[in-house]
Design goal:
single chain; alpha/beta; 5-stranded parallel beta sheet; 12 strands; about 40% helix; binds NADP nicotinamide-adenine-dinucleotide phosphate
Length: about 290
């Protein structure tokens, strides 16, 4: 029986990146749907649930992607709501690469050991990647601070993370270099999670930072999130810090993505969202 992956994407054209990765991860057939709204999901998922017997359902799985991460979350909820009894298929959410990228960055940050009780700053932690990374780090016991150009946005994100993940993260404003330097005081690690092509962390702040041990940047588009960084850094020792650039993190992200897709076909009842993707990433290590 062939392994069929059903790719539900909220963009007009289902992601080519996700399609190629699916084949590389072992999917034998890919059924692609674009422009999918949450209200479309139930009938699409029913097509997977009612075609194969319960013992064979692990050969069908659903991948939810697209650039709209909030819509992706609603699509995942709609898929969960469609299942009943043994009639279910495994589902992975990785809209815009949010879960796999956050998991890869956090595993990199954990490479220097536990973050329990340590201050970790997620710069521009209001986006989908930063939010998940912040939640996962807080789940590891870190004292997480997320920044935004506007304090109210950071506070809203902090409240949303408390609601969704049950974690406590501190909100801070970092709209200027002075505010960024202040937020980073006493930090063990910093993750730059801002939009593509936006520099958030000047070299003058991180290079001489006395406590900072880990530096990570997920923005691969010049100018990079961390001034003076190299995208290819994959745990290099730079200025006394273990440093990760977006391609270094991205390579590991690809391994995580493929491992998660392969895992989908091992059972018919898996939901791979941020926490589950992170658990698999920790097994793989960087
Ligand atoms: P995003 O939502 O596009 O942006 C994250 C945050 O950046 C926003 O919430 C915003 O925070 C801040 N921001 C936006 N424009 C800004 C500007 N002009 N100046 C300063 N701050 C600005 O990002 P995302 O989707 O979470 O992705 C985060 C990063 O990961 C991106 O650079 C993306 O390209 C990268 N990414 C990398 C990989 C990989 O494999 N390496 C995979 C996926 C994504 P405030 O408005 O609250 O300040």
């Amino acid at each position: 029986m062939r392994k069929i992956l059903i790719q539900l994407d909220n963009d007009r054209f289902p992601s080519v990146f996700d399609a190629v990765t699916a084949y590389d991860a072992g999917a034998e057939v890919l059924l692609q749907y674009g422009n999918v709204q949450p209200s479309d999901v139930r009938d699409l998922v029913y097509g997977a649930m009612f075609t194969r017997g319960p013992a064979d359902l692990h050969n069908s799985a659903v991948f939810i992607g697209g650039t709209d991460v909030s819509a992706g979350e609603a699509m995942l909820q709609a898929a969960r709501d469609s299942f009943f009894g043994p009639l279910r298929v495994s589902v992975m959410l990785d809209a815009n690469g949010c879960n796999t990228t956050a998991a890869a960055a956090v595993v990199g940050i954990l490479s220097e050991g536990s973050v329990e009780g340590k201050k970790v700053v997620v710069l521009a932690g209001t986006g989908p990647v930063g939010q998940r990374a912040a939640a996962l780090l807080a789940g590891e016991g870190a004292q997480v601070v997320i920044t935004s150009r506007r304090l109210d946005r950071a506070e809203q994100t902090s409240a949303a993370l408390r609601e969704r993940f049950g974690v406590q993260v501190t909100a801070a404003q970092a709209a200027t270099d002075e505010e960024t330097a202040q937020v980073l005081e006493g930090a063990h690690a910093a993750l730059s999670a801002g939009a593509a092509g936006v520099t958030l962390l000047p070299a003058a702040i991180w290079k001489g930072h006395p406590e900072l041990r880990i530096l990570a940047d997920v923005n691969a588009v010049p100018p990079l999130g961390v001034e003076g960084a190299e995208v290819t850094w994959a745990g290099e020792d730079v200025e006394g810090k273990r440093a990760y650039g977006a391609i270094g993190i991205g390579d590991f992200k690809m391994k995580i993505h493929k491992r998660c897709l392969a895992r989908l076909f091992e059972a018919n009842d898996l939901i791979l969202d941020a926490e589950e993707v992170f658990a698999l990433a920790k097994e793989l290590r960087m």
